[in-house]
Amino acid sequence: MRNALPFVVVGIVCLAGCGGMLGPNDATTTPTTPAQIPTDSPLNTLPNGLSEERVDPLVITATHTEALENTSFTVVYGQSLTAENGTALVNATATTRVSANHSVAYSTSRYDAGTSVWFESSVRDVERWFTGSDYFFRGEGPDGPVYVSPPAAGTPEGIPSSTLQQYYTETELTNLSTDDGMLVLRLHGLSGQQYAGSVPITVTEGTVTVTMSADGRVEGYRVEYTGHLSNSPEQSVEGTRTAQFGAFGTTTVEPPEWLGDAREATANATD
Asked: Residue 214's closest CA among 54, 55, 45, 49?
């Protein structure tokens, strides 16, 4: 990880105004002091892994995970990828629900442009069920449902931290502020290989904005980037990726009705 740029707190100095012109012996000096951070500001007590100068990727993601311990939650994702000529290459939304003990998760996705890496381009609606041992996808195609059981790609326990840790590692903190009682981190320098749906992208410049509570629980993040298609370097693109955490402690997760069909279909496919 590169060394973070220093974060500078600029004190705003208020000057006392005086009417009329002042003679050389009439001027008075009014003591001034830098603006003080309110005592209830989140900047006074930063969560583990965060300082005004830098982010510790491992510690800050662990802090977020610990803040969600034994808590169910929902994450709403969005992503877009647009070609230089304005064509939408990817436009997708997803909602993932995670159980309180983080042992199971269920998600639904909608691709208005692009698709999941596991399906043909005709599949627009995708559902996913996964645990530590099961990983099933259901795609709704023109000829009916299609089921896939790929190799395990992580577990529900990793949902709170996996993507965030990558972003923290690949960027540097350039600004730390507050907004309505929340901490706002602005990170720059994102680059390298990324994916939007099934499309590989080489990012040349990207920024990440993270909003978190005073105890380090992430409420949401937004990624904005420019680059080019990895398979077509001449094709410039720009994209966004967002995530919003919510429904803390009120999210419920139940196995989907199609789980039995998915088990049967994928078992037959490997016979």
From this structure: 45
Q: What are phi and psi of 103, to 5 degrees?
A: -95, -25
Q: How many CA atoms lie within 13 A of 90 on its CB side?
A: 24
Total domains in the chain come to: 1
Q: For residue 161, name the pLDDT band (cuts at 50, 70, 90).
A: confident
Reduced to 3 states, what is the DSSP secondary structure of residue 227? strand
Q: Among candidates 238, 196, 205, which has minimal Cα distance to 109?
A: 196
Q: Which of 44-48, 99-103, 113-117, 205-209 has the highest mean pLDDT?
A: 205-209
Considering 2-11, 43-52, 112-121, 155-164, the range whose residues carry the highest mean pLDDT is 43-52
Structural domain that includes position 179: 47-270
**Nearest alpha-carbon partner for 118 in 142, 139, 93:** 139
Q: What is the mean pLDDT of the chain?
A: 84
pLDDT tens for 166-201 read 999 999 999 999 999 999 999 999 999 999 988 999
* Residues 16/184, Cβ–Cβ less than 8 Å: no
Return the CATH number at 253. 2.50.20
Residue entry with tokens 């996964």: 130
Indicate whether 154 belongs to any domain: yes
Q: Does residue 22 fall inside a structural domain?
A: no
Rounded to an integer, what distance in angstroms lies between the CA atom of residue 9 and that of residue 102? 39
Residue 211 belongs to a domain: yes
Short-list 202, 194, 229, 260, CA closest to 84: 229
